[in-house]
């Protein structure tokens, strides 16, 4: 019997096993098995650390293996369980810390997690996607002559740099139009390391913190702004790893809402889907998890969207803000079990269809990519079943604003 040490397990000994969290958990709901829901995960975690006399007598053996790690990691780290837990277990920290302890004691993080880690620390890539370093600024370097130093550094993030470049160009367009004095770190930007924290691979996170903080300082920045909620939380964690961390960390929607409030950006063109309902999806890390950490961003994206002429009132999903359901792309789940992550996305799209929305907007490049792929799958599913055409627009808040200026 492998005896694992999970120091933070005390946090969940208060679990009543009431099961109230089960139907709230997106992976538990999609899989239908208790082991994939928080209560089941907590049960098995207790089992591997409290192997006792009765287990011996009944010859009950439980060996944590790769399969069990996959089950544990089949979780989007969305924190929805924490929002409903009867005993207020702080799951958003608990899951990350538990993954960390298990990985540090030699268990293997599942799926492509190790490949992502190695890619981040490979000097040719410095990102989790094995994309060349020199491609990081290729979409904008010829069109934007950004200053060497600025008070605001826009930390772009790997997902936006390599996969959601249209969003990147829209952020640059909007900030430039508003006259914001900002710069980027171009190819000196390294992965923020959030994926390391999510997948239990905390080793060498300090290197990323020191590198990126050094680059912030070179540019004499006091504010770091990012459009990626994963980077937003990851960069905040740098404070635990560097001697001095005196930067204000902001999400791009906070800066944009402020620019609109101060009349520094005129939104004059009508929303192209004029008077058709648009629903806003709260990214877990930007909304609920940031709320747990003391700074929820719920209102800014809604305010920005409603400032666009003829967009109307932003619609809400049946569960939103604190109770928003994850898009399916969080917690590194795509790398662990792509099918589960896609099923969660499809339930989200079904919710949007049920409320009659014709567009889904969000404020996270990961949600954007995930929901976009999900709508394509839904289109094929509907075409196959009914032969009907299905259309759902998917936007980031900045995509909508860029078209309105
Ligand atoms: S964090 Fe989300 S996916 Fe993970 S157990 Fe909790 S509710 Fe389920
Ligand atoms: S809601 Fe909280 S107390 Fe109840 S089973 Fe889930 S984790 Fe345990």
Number of domains: 3
CATH architecture of the largest domain: 3-Layer(aba) Sandwich
Give the N-to-C terminal Cα separation. Answer: 63 Å
> Percent of residues in helical segments?
40-55%
CATH topology of the largest domain: Rossmann fold
Structural class: alpha/beta
Provide a count of the helices. Answer: 19
Look at the structure and give the mean pLDDT. 94
In N-to-C order, the SSE pattern is HHHHHHHEHHEHHEHEHEHHEHHEHEH
Largest sheet: 4 strands, parallel
* Radius of gyration, in angstroms, nearest whole number: 22 Å
Bound molecules: iron/sulfur cluster
> What is the 3D shape?
globular
What is the CATH C-level name of the largest domain?
A: Alpha Beta
Write out the strand line-up for the largest beta sheet, numbering strands in chain order.
Answer: 2-1-3-4
Structure summary, number of beta strands:
8
Strand content is: 5-15%
In the predicted model, the low-confidence regions spanning at least 5 consecutive residues are none
Summarize the structure.
This protein has 405 residues and is of the alpha/beta class.
Task: Report what the structure shows.
- The chain is an alpha/beta fold and 405 residues long.
- It folds into three domains: 7-104, Fumarate Reductase Iron-sulfur Protein, Chain B, domain 2, CATH 1.10.1060.10; 113-261, Rossmann fold; 278-404, Rossmann fold (3-Layer(aba) Sandwich), CATH 3.40.50.
- Helices cover 44% and strands 7% of the residues.
- The chain is built from 19 helices and eight strands.
- The strands form two sheets. Strands 2-1-3-4 form a four-stranded parallel β-sheet.
- The longest helix is centred in the C-terminal third of the chain and has 22 residues, at 365-386.
- It is globular.
- The mean pLDDT is 94.
- Residues 24-28, 38, 75-81, 91, 95 line the site of one iron/sulfur cluster.
- One iron/sulfur cluster binds at residues 15-21, 38-39, 42, 85-87, 89.
């Amino acid at each position: 019997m492998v005896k694992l040490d999970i120091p933070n397990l005390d946090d969940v000994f208060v679990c009543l096993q009431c099961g109230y969290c089960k139907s709230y958990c997106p992976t538990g709901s999609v899989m239908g098995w208790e082991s994939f829901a928080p209560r089941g995960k907590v049960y098995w975690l207790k089992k591997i650390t409290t192997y006792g006399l009765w287990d011996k007598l009944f010859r009950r053996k439980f060996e944590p293996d790769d399969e069990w790690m996959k089950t544990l990691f089949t979780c989007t780290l969305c924190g929805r369980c924490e929002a409903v837990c009867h005993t207020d277990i702080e799951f958003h920290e608990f899951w990350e810390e538990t993954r960390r302890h298990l990985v540090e004691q030699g268990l293997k993080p599942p799926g492509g997690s190790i490949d992502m880690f190695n890619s981040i620390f490979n000097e040719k890539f410095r990102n989790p996607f094995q994309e060349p370093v020199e491609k990081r600024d290729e979409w904008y370097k010829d069109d934007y002559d950004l200053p060497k130093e600025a008070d605001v550094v826009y930390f772009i993030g790997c997902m936006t740099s390599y996969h959601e470049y249209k969003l990147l160009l829209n952020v640059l367009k909007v900030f430039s139009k508003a006259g914001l004095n900002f710069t980027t770190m171009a190819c000196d930007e390294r992965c923020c390391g959030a994926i390391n924290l999510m997948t239990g691979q905390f080793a060498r996170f300090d290197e990323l913190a020191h590198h990126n903080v050094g680059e912030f300082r070179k540019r004499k920045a006091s504010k770091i702004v990012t459009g990626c909620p994963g980077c937003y939380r990851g960069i905040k964690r740098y404070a635990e790893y560097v001697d001095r961390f005196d930067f204000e960390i902001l999400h791009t929607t906070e800066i944009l809402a402020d620019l609109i409030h101060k009349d520094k950006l005129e939104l004059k063109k009508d929303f192209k889907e004029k008077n058709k309902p648009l629903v806003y999806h709260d990214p877990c890390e930007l909304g609920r998890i940031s709320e747990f950490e003391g700074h929820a961003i719920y209102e800014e994206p809604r305010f920005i969207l409603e400032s666009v002429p003829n967009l109307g009132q932003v619609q809400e999903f049946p569960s939103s803000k604190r109770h928003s359901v994850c898009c399916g792309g969080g917690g590194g789940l795509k790398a662990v079990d792509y099918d589960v992550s896609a099923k969660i996305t499809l339930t989200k799209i079904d919710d949007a269809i049920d409320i009659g929305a014709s567009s889904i907007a969000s404020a996270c490049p990961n949600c954007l990519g995930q929901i976009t792929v999900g709508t394509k799958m839904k289109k094929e599913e509907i075409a196959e079943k009914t032969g009907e055409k299905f259309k759902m627009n998917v936007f980031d808040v900045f995509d909508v604003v860029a078209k309105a200026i």
